[in-house]
Design brief:
453 residues; alpha+beta; 13 helices; 25% helix
């Protein structure tokens, strides 16, 4: 029998991290965020506090199943008989990621299982003051939800769940600045992305004044945040487009490992790592960068990339691996070694041919092939049903983070556009670029330096 009880968090209890499904990202919390995480406290701190949406879930059934594995039915019965208090939430549900910090969460945060990307346009008549009020509401709601607290007039969608590593990230599109009367604050790095030969972009699903990225390890928690933020926007901004994605659930593999995409390929091995000497410089705008309000921020390139999976799946395993330049089974480069072995671009086979073909994806996209250009890729997969021809409408919600898109995404995509074997199996159908300011401190809201500067 499973019991449920309401519970408040223990005041002062520190958040705990769990191992995640993305190996590179599992080390990716920057020091400032780690310090924030160690100081984060639970929301219920006195009689006047709101009731948390976390509840303790009795796990008698789960414990019984564990007993059957360990020692048969007798073990299950013993687990039932000795339980006097319900078990707390699993680590997946109880994991918190601080909303406040030097950088916004959701950039270096480990990949979550569920994601929503949504862009908004300001409604006619909404000005800078209205935008500031909206970002204040959004930041307040995001701060409450990421701590597991219930906002006023809540929908009740996620009452039974913990925060589940929820993150909410806010950004500004190029068109926002003109509509809010902030043309003089428009960053040079927010210039429109150039056209690429592989583009087949839908303008209705591209760009936008404002952008939100939501990630969580529970689908209802992610949707709850999306719904709450959409409600906050009423009267000020309306949704322009929305995209929903997913990744592998933490704990689905025997040990933390790099995620796979819908082509079955391990994706993210060669991502920049926080331990890299130039990681901060590549990913984040410096503290004294321009414009000043973008200090500690980053730029997000968002692309909806449909994969031609029917064509891809008809390739032999050998051909798939040559197109990518890595083994499908373990992600090791065809030049030899393991997944983490540096790609040997100069290695040749016994017959004199390149171990990694000249148009293989890992060769064309490598920093060494692009004068050091790199970006932090943090995508979600998506599946939006089937097209008229029966092919799956599925692929990658590509999100790439960099301090300057002209030094990160643009040169790499230009190179891919010219000669990447993988491009024949991809269609870029939507595109956007957003300026994502640094994080907000307690009592502040995201974008305050821009909107009140």
């Amino acid at each position: 029998m499973t019991t449920q009880q309401h519970s408040r968090r223990n005041p002062g209890k520190k958040s705990e991290n769990t191992s995640e499904n993305n190996k590179d990202a599992s080390q990716s919390q920057v020091p400032a965020q780690s310090q924030d995480a160690s100081q984060s406290q639970d929301a219920s701190q006195g009689p006047g506090s709101r009731i948390s949406r976390r509840r303790l879930l009795g796990t008698a059934g789960a414990a019984g199943a564990a007993g059957l594995v360990a020692g048969g039915a007798a073990g299950a019965y013993a687990a039932e008989a000795t339980r006097s208090e319900p078990e707390p939430l699993t680590s997946v549900g109880s994991t918190t990621v601080p909303f406040h910090g030097t950088h916004q969460a959701g950039i270096t945060t480990p990949l979550q299982a569920h994601g929503h990307l949504v862009a908004f346009d300001l409604v006619p008549g909404a000005d800078r003051k209205a935008a500031a009020a909206l970002l204040r509401r959004w930041s307040r709601t995001a701060g409450q939800l990421t701590e597991g607290r219930t906002p006023p007039d809540d929908t009740g969608i996620a009452l039974d769940a913990g925060p589940s590593a929820l993150t909410v990230t806010f950004g500004f599109g190029r068109t926002f600045f003109g509509r809010a009367g902030l043309e003089d604050q428009l960053p040079e790095a927010l210039a429109p992305l150039p056209d690429f030969a592989s583009d087949a972009l839908d303008a209705k699903r591209s760009n936008g004044d404002l952008w939100i990225q939501i990630g969580a390890n529970d689908g209802l928690v992610a949707f709850h945040a999306l719904r709450a933020l959409q409600r906050d926007a009423r009267g000020t901004a309306r949704p322009r487009w929305q995209m929903n994605g997913f990744n592998r659930t933490p704990g689905a593999t025997g040990h933390p490992m790099t995620a796979r995409n819908l082509m079955g390929q391990i994706d993210g091995t060669n991502n920049p790592k926080p331990s890299d000497e130039n990681f901060q410089r590549r990913v984040f705008v410096p503290a004294k960068g321009e414009p000043a309000w973008m200090a500690h921020g980053s730029y997000a390139v968002v692309r909806r990339i449909r994969m031609l999976l029917d064509s891809w799946d008809h390739l032999s395993l050998e051909r798939q691996e040559k197109v990518i330049g890595r083994r499908k089974s373990d992600g090791a480069p065809l030049s030899g070694g393991t997944e983490d072995t540096p790609v040997g671009l100069g290695k040749v086979n016994g017959d004199g041919s390149l171990a990694i073909a000249g148009a293989a994806h890992v060769r064309v996209a490598a920093p060494a092939s692009n004068q050091g250009a790199a970006m932090l890729r943090r995508p979600f997969s998506y599946h939006d049903g089937f097209r008229d021809d029966g092919a799956p409408d599925a692929g990658l919600l590509f999100v790439a983070w960099q301090a300057d898109p002209m030094k990160g995404f643009v040169p790499v995509q230009r190179k891919l556009d010219l000669g990447d074997d993988l491009s024949r199996f991809l269609r870029h159908e939507a595109s956007a670029l957003f300026a994502v300011p640094g994080g907000a401190g307690p009592g502040e809201y995201v974008g305050q330096a821009l909107l009140e500067g």
